[in-house]
Amino acid sequence: MNKKELVESIAEAAEINKVAAEKALNGTMMAIAEALKKGDAVTLVGFGTFSVSKRESRQGRNPKTGDTIKIPAKNVARFKAGSKLSETVN
Which homologous superfamily is 41-90 in? Predict the structure, then answer.
């Protein structure tokens, strides 16, 4: 499912037009991104938790040349599925 299909599904489920559904989806994604940028976790009970974790710097290899390279540390977004989502998928 892509974003367009998700917007259509939200609009149908909430009985609103697609423009309003897209604004709601964009607002939700922006709010989650801003919270993660601040280092906060976002928990949607039953659905899951979005969080940020720090990935340490490490050594890697360039697959083309075989040279050793340093991969810098960075923050990465994580998602852990909640119990209701896990039950629905299984």
Answer: IHF-like DNA-binding proteins (4.10.520.10)
